[in-house]
Amino acid sequence: MPEYRACLMNDDGSVLRSVQLLCPDDDTAKEYARQLVDGHAIELWRGGIRIGQFMKREI
Q: By three-state DSSP, how is residue 17 classified?
């Protein structure tokens, strides 16, 4: 199963922390990453390829 990394981003573009995701495909990984969005933007990576970017919700 492919390995993905969801990176929680600070406002300055640095990575606050990252979460490893094991998902069967990109679409499933994007759904999981969308659920992580809250006070921080999320970048979703598969290896060295960014496959998604999700903007933070204002709280």
A: strand
